[in-house]
Specification:
Blueprint lengths: L2 H12 L4 H12 L10 H13 L5 H26 L13 H14 L2 H6 L9 H7 L4 H28 L6 H23 L24
Helix pairs in contact: 1-3, 2-3, 2-4, 3-8, 4-7, 4-8, 8-9
């Protein structure tokens, strides 16, 4: 655990009443373009899962705040991408990360809405995918549905291992473990299936342009 992660975990353990809000702020920041590369939200969620198992934190508050933060962070990044369009690539905060941006745009071009789910677990690319979706003018309804669904899976996926590690897998009924794994699997499958339905196709044909044009709505 990094110094920042350790400090944050200590604060949360000592101020349980503020733990939910603190985690919400961390997941919000981790979901923001550029800022997310410097915030250890995944490590914090694992630690929080362990604290829930120990009875230090209240699970509903932690899950709810972390979920809201993750959703709002991606939504704001998406809005910035839609508002700035291609100008976002020339922004001083994004220009130093041109390689990450290029990889993110390629992922979004290939997988469309499904990239929002993939991006939750894509490490350094994660915070750049919502802004790329906004630049590509992904329909807002499609984005927000995938954003909410993928956030539920992401938060649960990182709280659960911490909880299981602290509680001890052998101490948890098999039916509970099967239910948790089945729920996560079903949610992931549902999101990926929805992304394949008509109306959830990757991106409009107008966006399948040359690499030099990038993800633009209008032809070059």
């Amino acid at each position: 655990m990094t110094g920042l992660s350790h400090t944050a975990a200590t604060f949360i353990a000592q101020h349980a009443a503020w733990a939910g809000l603190a985690l919400g702020l961390v997941t919000f920041g981790e979901s923001m373009v550029v800022v997310g590369a410097f915030l250890p939200a995944t490590v914090m969620l694992l630690a929080a899962g362990g604290m829930i198992a120990a009875g230090v934190l209240e699970p509903i508050s932690v899950f709810g705040w972390a979920l809201v933060g993750a959703i709002l962070g991606d939504a704001l990044s998406y809005w910035l991408g839609r508002r700035l369009g291609a100008r976002a690539l020339r922004h001083p905060l994004l220009s130093p990360h041109h390689r990450l941006v290029a990889r993110t745009r390629l992922l979004t071009r290939r997988h469309g809405v499904a990239s929002l789910f993939i991006g939750r677990f894509a490490g350094p690319l994660r915070a750049f995918i919502p802004v790329a979706a906004g630049m590509a003018r992904m329909p807002a309804r499609h984005f927000h549905l995938a954003n909410i669904g993928s956030a539920v899976v992401w938060v649960a996926a990182f709280l659960t291992p911490g909880y299981l590690a602290a509680r001890g897998v052998s101490a948890i009924p098999a039916s509970t473990l099967i239910g948790v794994l089945a729920g996560l699997g079903a949610a992931a499958a549902a999101i990926l299936a929805i992304s394949k339905l008509r109306g959830w196709r990757p991106l409009p044909r107008a966006l399948q342009t040359t690499a030099g044009c990038g993800l633009r709505v209008a032809p070059c």
